[in-house]
Structures are given as C-alpha cells and as structure tokens.
Amino acid sequence: MLLVKPVKKVFAKIFPTVIPDLKDRMADIPIRHFNFNFKSEEIDVKFFMQKEWATAYFAALSIFLTYGEELVIETARHHRDQIKDPVLKQRLTSLIGQEAIHSKVHDEFNDALIPRNMPVRLYRFLAEQVFNYGLLKFPQPLKLSMMAGIEHFTAVFAEYAMNNEEIFTNSLDDKQRGLWMWHMLEESEHKDIAYDTYQVLSANYPLRVAGFFIALIVLGVGVGAGALFLPFLRHPLNTVSPSFWKEAKGSWDLLFGLKNGVFGSSLGHIFDYLRLDFHPNDHDTTTLLEHYKKELLDPETGTLTPFFVKEFTPPIRLS
Ligand SMILES: [Fe+2]
Ligand SMILES: [Fe+2]
C-alpha cells in the first residue's frame, strides 16, 4: 500500500492530466436549427469536385455519421451529471443539441439520397448492427474515449474543409454545400468539449488511445469500405466505363493525396492526438471560425441564411 502514492506520481508524470482552464473558453455555443428541404432530384451526386467516388465517401459518411452522433449524444448525456463545472456542463448541453440537429438534418439528406439509388437502407442496416450490437454496448469509460476520438476526427475534417473551401464550390448544389459547411463550422466550434469532458472525468492516456483507434477503424475502414462499394451498388454498369476509372484517380487524390487530400494532408493533425499533452485547441481555428460565421450566418448576406430557422443558447446553471 505504501507504494501506491509513488507509483501514482510516476504514472501521472508519464500520462499527464491536461485539465483545461475553462475560464479561457467560455464562448457561448448556440444550437442552430436549419431546414434545407432537400429534394432528391436536386442532389448533385458528384458534389465533391465533380468526382463520383469522392462524393460516395461523403454520402457513406453522411449515413454512418448519424450513428456516431447518436453515440456522442448518449455518452455526453450519461456523463453530463458527473460534471461539476457549470460552464463545461452548459457546453455539453450545446454539444448534445448541435449533434442532435446534425443527425436529424443528415437523416433528411440521407432519405433524399434513396431515390438516387444510394444504398442508404443497406448502410443503415449495417451501421445498426455495428453500433447497436457493438459500439453502444461498450463500457461508458471507453465510450467516453470513443466520443473524444470521433470528435477529434470531425474537428480534423472541419479544419481541412474550412482551409479548402474549393471542395465545396465545384457544384451548383447550394443545399449540400450548406449542409456540409454548417456541420463543419459547428464541429470546429465544439471540438474541445468531448475532449475536456474526457480529461476531467478520466484523463487515462492508454484508454484515450484505444478510443482514438476505434474511431479511426470505424471512420477509416467502415466508412471507407462503404464508399468503396457504393458506386458498384448504385449503378454497377457505370463502373465498367473508362470515364469512371479515369475519374477514380481524382477521387483518390481528393481523399488521400498527401499534398492536398482530405486525409492524406491531415495525417499530422490526425496523429497529433496521440501526443501526451495534446489539446484540440492547440490547432487554433478561431480566425477561420470568425471568417466562416460571417460568411455563412450573417443575417443579410450569409449563404446559410435562407435555410436558417432559429437558434438557442443553453443557460449556465450554477446549482
Ligand atoms: Fe456532428
Ligand atoms: Fe461533433
């Protein structure tokens, strides 16, 4: 028993607990409601740089993300009661609210993909097996770590998207552009909440790494496989045309190219999460966020303004 204290001290040195100073990050995070009224026939199935396979990745992501968001919502709700800090508690409520609206609006988008021959029902069935019988049954501490891992990946994509707006501007599909840009703005806006909650309640480094790798497998392998097979399930005959394979190279570059690809160029950011003293705000996106809030949400000129319904900021409760 006498050895417990020194061992704890050494462990704390190897795996330092990064407890955030919440006073520095008290910006309110509103829960915004949008109505895009997606119409199947208006959806551009080559939205991302007019590349079918790259767009298939994001269609698969849109379907699987809703299940990841359910996991985030359920886990955040479960742990919110254990948080004493009223500011972090309020921010968790914002996270839950934002993710609930993301999930709802992506589901509306996914429904509109069905008449375009997208295998939405099949992918929903597969995601339900993985989440309902697997990931959602994991112990809460691991789910908390997975939540932080999932939020890290969405924050990486959000930063990439805000730095590479051109991936959204090669199409006339304003609604799909609005959906992704709004989602990415909010993923960046709330990127530290799951991590801060994890650090306050656990801060166990090996468990954090485990959650990271599970999120990596789900988002990389799971969504990747969904994207890989999507064009073959959608229109098998299209995939025998030379133009499909010619375009496939462009899709690969857009996703995995080391110079500018979504994931290829973000490898440093992705694996920075494994740093012992990592914090999401080490990757400062405040200037980008200010820029995009103005561009998207300005009441007069914002590109999202035609779809905006209302917003609500949860109050800070001191008791
Ligand atoms: Fe989300
Ligand atoms: Fe999120």
Q: If you had to describe this structure to a student in words, what would you say it looks like?
A:
By secondary structure, the protein is an all-alpha fold. The protein has one domain (50-312). 61% of the residues lie in helices and 3% in strands. It is built from eleven helices and two strands. The protein has helices at residues 4-14, 52-80, 86-113, 120-132, 140-163, 174-189, 193-201, 205-234, 242-256, 267-272, 286-297; strands at residues 31-34, 308-312. Strands 1-2 form a two-stranded antiparallel ribbon. Helix 3 packs antiparallel against helix 6 (174-189) and helix 5 packs across helix 8. The longest helix has 30 residues, at 205-234. It is globular. The model has no long low-confidence stretch (mean pLDDT 91). One fe (ii) ion (FE2) binds next to helix 5.
In short:
By secondary structure, this protein is mainly α. It is 61% helix and 3% strand. It has one domain.
Any low-confidence stretches, pLDDT <50, length ≥5?
A: none
Q: How big is the Rg?
A: 20 Å
Largest sheet: 2 strands, antiparallel
**What class, by secondary structure content?**
mainly alpha
The total beta strand count reads 2
How many helical stretches?
11
The average pLDDT score comes to 91
Bound molecules: fe (ii) ion
What order do the helices and strands follow? HEHHHHHHHHHHE
Based on Cα principal axes, name the global outline.
globular
Task: Give the proportion of residues in helices.
Answer: 55-70%
| Strand coverage percent | under 5%
Total domains, how many?
1
How far is the first residue's CA from the last residue's CA?
A: 38 Å
Widest sheet: strand ordering: 1-2
